[in-house]
Design goal:
Shape: globular
Structural class: alpha+beta
Number of helices: 9
Largest sheet: 6 strands, mixed
Radius of gyration: 19 Å
CATH architecture of the largest domain: 3-Layer(aba) Sandwich
Distance between the termini: 51 Å
Strand content: 25-35%
Low-confidence stretches: none
Amino acid sequence: MFETTLKVGPASFRIGSDWKEPIALIDELYAAYPKPSLSDFTVRMEATKPWRRYIRPSVQIKGDYMLPDALPLPLEQAFLAAEMGLNLQMALGWRRHLILHASSAEKDGKALIMTGESGSGKSTLSALLGYNGWRFMGDEFALIDHDNGEAVPYPRMISLKNQAIAAMEKQVPNAVLGPLIEATPKGDIRHMVPPIDAIRNMEKSARPAMLLFPRFGHDTEVREVLPSEAFMRLTQASTNYVTMGEVGFNTLTRFIDETPVYAIDYQNSEDAISMVNELWSKI
């Protein structure tokens, strides 16, 4: 089995594959990331049957934590399988922080947390902020420290979907992108390497200063969100809130108590960035 190691923020991974090509691509796109000697989690990409390594190659995602009923992916989508495997380990196995399914960015030592349904634009918005005066902190997960309430960076590959791919290519022409992965359950996907300062500073946490619920494709509007609504929505957005018990409850309630919450609707990324910067200037 071909293998590599990878450290993102506080978490370390060992990644194995029956095929060398996915590991080579991981090493290429994650070249700027540390390679730890010890790992918190293991991810494996294995053929569903021995002959499926060669005939119609089929990739099964395995590791310390798995979804037994998950369907295999074709070899052309092996990098996506690796990213999904990394997500599974964090979502099901990480206990050191409260995990929110959210993107985040930092400015002036303070963190903006953005969460919403798939397609809300949070990934694209956090990536664009990372190229417009902010430090990108994460795309898939926001990690909230139980002890001090700070947001801990987890800057993995930025997952761009469908029309967001062309938009990002146009607005950030020098971005480093992985291959286009077509016809996935979520449409076309292409991964983008985060700005280098996000990788170099992924040990630097920041105090959350705003929670934002963005929503793409609607008439422009900004509105405040009540703490009670934000709390309920974040319990659904957390992958380990229930598992963490009282610690998770205390971490989440402190986060809500200390962080102003807004929702924004927007038609394009330029409007969204302008709205974020205007709200940020008032905190």
